[in-house]
Each structure stands twice: as C-alpha cells, then as structure tokens.
Amino acid sequence: MSAASRQEKLAAIFKSATVIPVLTIERVEDAVPLARALVAGGVRVLEVTLRTPVAVEAAKAMIAEVPAAIVGIGTILNADDLARASALGAKFGISPGATPELLKAAAASDLPFAPGIATASELMQALAAGFDLLKFFPAEQAGGIKALRALAGPFPNVRVCPTGGIGEVNAAAWLAEPNVVAVGGSWLCTAADIRAGNWAGITAMCQRTLKSLKPA
C-alpha cells in the first residue's frame, strides 16, 4: 500500500468517526464492555493508548470480541510501539509527536498512521516523510483554533485530528474548521465512568455528543 493510499484510508476512518475517544484502560476486563458501550452509542473508531501495562491485551480483546469496533493504537512513541500495533491487528496508529526514527518506521509500515505535530517545523518534517494527515496535539494548549488557522495558511492541504483540551463544549467549534477531519478526546468515557462500569452512561454520552455534532 502506498503512503498516499494509507493516508486516504486513515482519512476515511477519521471522517467516519467525527469523535475518536482516547482510551486509557487500567483493567483488561473493562476493555470489551467499554468497546461495546461506545459502539452502542454510535462511536466505532476507538484509540487505545499505550499508557498502561494492559493496553495491548485490552486492544486485542476489543479486536477479537467487538468486531464492529475499529480499533487503533495511540501514544505510539517509537518503532517498537508501531510494530506492536501492527502485530495485534490495529487498524491505525497515532502518536503525540514524532521523531525522525518513528517517521521513517511509519513510512515503511503498512499501518495507516497519524504523527503528532504542534509546530510548523514538526509539520514540515511529517510532510517530508509522506504524512499529510496529522494529530494536532496538544490542541488547546498549543494555541487552539487560532494556531490551527495560522498553520493552515502555509499548509492549506494538511488535514488534522486535534486532540488535547477538546470536550463536549468546544468539539463543534473545532469540527467546523475546514482542515479538521475528526477530533479526539476522553470526555465520552471518563476514568470515573470506566472504573464504575457505567456503560449505560457512556453509551448515553456518545449518543448525546453525536447528536449535538450533526450538521443542521
């Protein structure tokens, strides 16, 4: 698969999502009911972050037992993380930033991948490696929508998935930007709801969010 076709495949996944929940899973046993609750609420594209010791096993369980979910791996920091994501059957990968080594490994991989950027220089490095669909992170802390618009001037064809500081209140404003294909965030399923097993509440939050973000 060419670099361009990988990016288009990822763009199609992100556009279908609108909102991508960023999942930090502490217990493997939460993985499948969480994925089912999200899918029941209309949220099928999921980012499982490599921030906990059980993240890989949690993602494997979701992929095996919740076929309606499109499971990707986030917090990819190096080539080893990228290889693990590919091996477990993830549909895409996302990083919070990108080193030259990671960009090189991602360019050689068949896994659709969105490197993280926050500055023009980082964006240029990602473009040089063949990536024009990027994670803008941390979105609010890196200057918010004004910063994104400033980057869109010299880079009009770059598409982004902003993550960081985005929630129910401001998601619609980000999605209204022409270069935003989806937003990422953790508000759909808070750590407290996951710990409590509040699966019905998570489903309801997903339904409410997607309804509020539908264009008029």
UniProtKB/TrEMBL annotation:
* Annotated metabolic or biological route of this protein: Carbohydrate acid metabolism; 2-dehydro-3-deoxy-D-gluconate degradation; D-glyceraldehyde 3-phosphate and pyruvate from 2-dehydro-3-deoxy-D-gluconate: step 2/2
Asked if the record carries the keyword Lyase, the reply is yes
| Pfam family of the protein (one) | Aldolase
Metal-binding among keywords? no
Enumerate the InterPro entries for this protein.
Answer: Aldlse_KDPG_KHG, Aldolase_TIM, KDPG/KHG_AS_1, KDPG/KHG_AS_2
Which GO-annotated molecular functions does the record name?
A: 2-dehydro-3-deoxy-phosphogluconate aldolase activity
Its signal peptide is none
Name the NCBIfam families on file.
eda, PRK05718.1
Task: Describe its assembly.
Answer: Homotrimer.
What is this protein's name?
A: 2-dehydro-3-deoxy-phosphogluconate aldolase
